[in-house]
Input
Amino acid sequence: MALRPEQQAVELISRAKNILITTREHASTDSLSSAVAMGLVLKKLNKTFDICVPGYDAAAHPAFLPKLDIRHKPGAMRAFHISLDVRETPLSELLYDVKDGKLEITLVPKQGDWMPKDVAFKHGDDRYDLIIALDSPDMASLGDIAKNQADFVYRTTIINIDHSAANEAWGQVNLVDLNAVSTSEVLFTFLQGWNKSFIDEALATSLLAGMISKTKGFRTQNVTPKTLKTSSELVTLGAKRGDIVSALWRTQSIANLKLWGRVLSRLEQDRELGLVWSILGESDFLEAGAKADALEGVVDELISYAPEAKTVLLAVKKTDGLHVHVFAQAPRSAAELARVFEGSGNRERALFISRENASPNETMKKILERMRGSLAV
Output
C-alpha cells in the first residue's frame, strides 16, 4: 500500500542528512513562523539544517518568535573538486592567491612535469539532500534560490507545505490544505499526526503566531471552527497569545501609521475589476520616517478588510522612474500582470518600473489602461 503524503514526508525527513528550510520571497509572518517552527522540530530530531528566508532582516525578527540562525540567502550548494594525479610526479609545494577576482593555484613538482591528463575537475555532492518549502506556491516564489540555483532545486527532493489555492503542487511530496487559513495551521496538523510531543511552548507560539497574523486575530472571513479549535489547543500547549497580539498590532510605529495614512488618503479603485491603487513619492517615506516594507502592512489591511480588492497597485515615484508594486489574490497572478510591463515576481507580489517621461498620475493612467485590459480577459 502506498504511503500517504504525510508518511512520505516523515520518511524523507528521517532519512535526510542535511535539510534546507525555505520560504517564499517577501515572507509574511506566517512564512517566517512556519520556518522557525520547522527548524525547532529538526532541532528536536538532531538534524543538520539551514533556514533561508529570502530578504530576511534579523533586525526585524519578531520578539515573540524563538531566535534561530536564519539566512537571507543560502550558502554554497556544493563543492568543486580539483584532483591531480601525483603517483608518477610527486607534489613538492602548493601555493595559491586571489588576484582580480581569480583564484590562482601554483603546484610545484618534486621532479618532472604534469600533463593536462593528470588533472581532473568535478562537482562534489549537493550540500542539501532535502528541501522543505513553506508558504511557497511555486518554484519562482523562492526568489534568488529559484533564479540562481534552479538546477539544484530541480534535482533535489522537495516537501511542499502550504495552504494557498495558488499552490501548484510543485514538490515531490505536497502537504497543501486549502481549508487551512495559514501554512502554520497546515504544519500543526502535520506535526500533530506525526508526534504530538514535538509541540512545546516555543513551537506552539510559533505556530499560533502564523495563524493570528494571517487571520488578523481571527477576524478574516476564512476562519473555520477547526482553526479556532487549533488555536485553543496551541494556547493550552503554552503558546504566548498575548505577546503575539501585542507585538503584531499594539506596537506599530508612528512612522508606519503616517505612511499608511498617506496611502489611504490617495486610494482609488475600480470596483468592477477589484482593482485598487495609490501613488506615493520618495518624500512621503522621508516625511513619515518609514521604510519601503511598511507598504506590505497596508496591503495586508486592504485585503483583510476589503475582500473586493483582488489586485493592489502601490506606485512610488523615484529618480529612475515609477516603481509599481503589484499585489494579487488567487486566481490572479501578480507576476503575470507585471510581465506585461517587463516586471518580475511571484503570484502574490511583483514589481515593475515605468520610465515614462510624464507625471506619476499620467504614467499611472497609462498603466491602468493596460492593466484593465489584462484583468478583463
User: Anything to note?
Assistant: The chain has a mean pLDDT of 88. DSSP finds 13 helices and 16 strands in the chain. The CA atoms of residues 37 and 352 lie 33 Å apart.
